[in-house]
# Entry
Amino acid sequence: MVNIQELIDDAKCYQTIRDMRWLDGVTCPGCSSDSVIKNGRDDTQPHRQRYECRACSQRFDDLTDTIFAGHHQPLRTWIACLYLMGLNLSGLQIAAELDINKDDARAMIQRLRRGIVDRRPPVTLQGEVECDEVDVVAGHKGHPEAVKKKADRRDGGA
# Structure
């Protein structure tokens, strides 16, 4: 079996995050200032750039305030998980493909789904909108006569 994580380049993952996150250049997540300097790299993930804000002195990195922040899995694992979710694989299949614990895979999938939902723009209805009513007849488990009596009352006892 091929380990898909070995096919993904860490440097490209981090560059993609930077490109998507900071279209107009790096800004501080605390004060939104663009007076930011690079401040080294992460010790365990050398492609993860650290920054320092000159305005508020806050330190942050490429993943600060993202859905990927604060987790032990490398960014390439998150990206691979997102890709496999797009292929409609189950949580167990994703865990097997990424060679991670099924509980970790489930937590990652939930977090990624939540991140996708949170980024969706709100639905705004425009123009003429119609709404039809729905009449649902729910049964009484084990009591079919109660359902029949309710239907008879609605139909006028017919």
